[in-house]
DNA sequence: CGTACGACCTGCCCGC
DNA sequence: TGCGGGCAGGTCGTAC
């Protein structure tokens, strides 16, 4: 998906609907990853958008009632905001119309994303939120805490970075980029990471993700923020999708870990 | 319990 | 040109 920076960029792009009143809602595809709740239309209609936020890779749209709309973009989900001239295209699954004539469209070819409506006070009790670890950009992310949680882990650090129960927000692209930046091999087992290396890893995590947010999300060549403009970070990938590229005398390699691609430089990423 | 892997989907790109 | 295979930003359920 959209990883943390793309979700953050999407949320920022949604400020155009802040305080706007929903006039109508259309569900064109009842089931995405999960079924869209039946009562969603009644709850959304005539309510106003009161707040927008991100929890890990989840988009939270708070209403001026007691409810919040939750959107996860899966692998290929996008939100676009358009004006009255909107023509529905393939994979536009869910559409919200505003009194202002602005329109919010959820578009998702693979339908791995989902849309939910929950009482705001119960949001943190939802399983998909409850199980999340500390946000990758939270100041509360500490090396000590991560060290304690992975000090017995036989799982390679690349896979650990993708575990949302530990650190939430990192996905497959930024995992490779973060490991390259911190000069840590993706193959290093959790139990073999000294605390000093974990500190380095956290530093790189903040550096890489903040930069990606600043540039408006990356990532994949066709990521667009809600107004349709492309993210700019793609030119900044050092290793992801760069198999064979030479970096300071080392060559980017592609390996498969747990069925997912990892890109890294074996000599540069030597944990020193 | 932690871990490993297939499943869920469509589209695109590559090689034959 | 067409077709089959493999791969793609994520996460969950199941089987050890």
The total count of helices amounts to 7
The SS-based structural class is: alpha+beta
Cα-based radius of gyration, to the nearest Å? 20 Å
The fraction of residues in strands falls at 15-25%
Helical fraction equals 10-25%
Q: Looking at the chains present, what oligomeric state does this protein adopt?
A: single chain
Overall description:
This protein is of the alpha+beta class and 272 residues long. The protein folds into two domains: 127 residues, N-terminal domain of MutM-like DNA repair proteins, CATH 3.20.190; 130 residues, Helicase, Ruva Protein, domain 3 (Orthogonal Bundle). Helix content is 23%, strand content 24%. It has seven helices and 14 strands. The protein is elongated. The structure holds a DNA duplex (16 and 16 nucleotides).
Key structural traits:
single chain; 272 residues; alpha+beta; N-terminal domain of MutM-like DNA repair proteins; Helicase, Ruva Protein, domain 3; 2 domains; four-stranded antiparallel sheet; 7 helices; DNA-binding
Show the helix and strand layout.
Blueprint: H1 4-13, E1 22-27, H2 40-44, E2 49-55, E3 58-63, E4 67-72, E5 78-82, E6 92-98, E7 103-107, E8 114-119, H3 127-130, E9 134-135, H4 143-150, H5 157-162, E10 167-168, H6 172-181, H7 195-214, E11 246-247, E12 250-251, E13 253-257, E14 260-264
Parallel strand pairs: 9-10
Antiparallel strand pairs: 1-6, 2-3, 3-4, 4-8, 5-7, 6-7, 11-12, 13-14
This protein binds a DNA duplex (16 and 16 nucleotides) through residues 1-3, 6, 33, 57, 72-77, 91, 108-113, 128, 153-155, 159, 162, 164, 171-174, 218-220, 223, 258-261.
């Amino acid at each position: 998906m959209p990883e943390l920076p793309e979700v953050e960029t999407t949320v920022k792009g949604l400020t155009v609907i802040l305080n706007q009143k929903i006039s109508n809602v259309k569900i064109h595809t009842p089931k995405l990853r999960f079924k869209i709740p039946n009562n969603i239309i009644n709850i959304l209609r005539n309510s106003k958008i009161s707040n927008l936020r991100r929890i890990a890779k989840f988009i939270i749209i708070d209403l001026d009632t007691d409810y919040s709309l939750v959107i996860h973009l899966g692998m290929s989900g996008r939100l676009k905001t358009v004006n009255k001239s909107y023509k529905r295209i393939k994979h536009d699954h869910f559409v919200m119309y505003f009194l202002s004539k602005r329109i919010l469209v959820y578009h998702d070819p693979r339908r791995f994303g989902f849309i939910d409506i929950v009482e705001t006070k119960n949001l943190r009790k939802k399983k998909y939120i409850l199980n999340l670890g500390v946000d990758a950009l939270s100041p509360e992310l500490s090396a000590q805490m991560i060290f304690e949680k992975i000090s017995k882990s036989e799982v390679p650090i690349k896979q650990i970075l993708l575990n949302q129960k530990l650190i939430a927000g990192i996905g497959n692209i930024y995992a490779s980029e973060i490991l390259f930046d911190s000069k840590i091999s993706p193959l290093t087992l959790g139990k073999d990471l000294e605390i000093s290396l974990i500190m380095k890893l956290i530093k790189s995590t903040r550096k890489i993700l903040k930069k990606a947010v600043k540039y408006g999300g990356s990532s994949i060549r066709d990521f667009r923020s809600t107004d349709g403009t492309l993210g700019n970070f793609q030119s900044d990938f050092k290793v992801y999708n760069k198999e064979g590229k030479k970096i300071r005398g080392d060559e980017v390699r592609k390996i498969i870990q747990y069925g997912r691609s990892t890109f890294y430089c074996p000599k540069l990423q030597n944990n020193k």
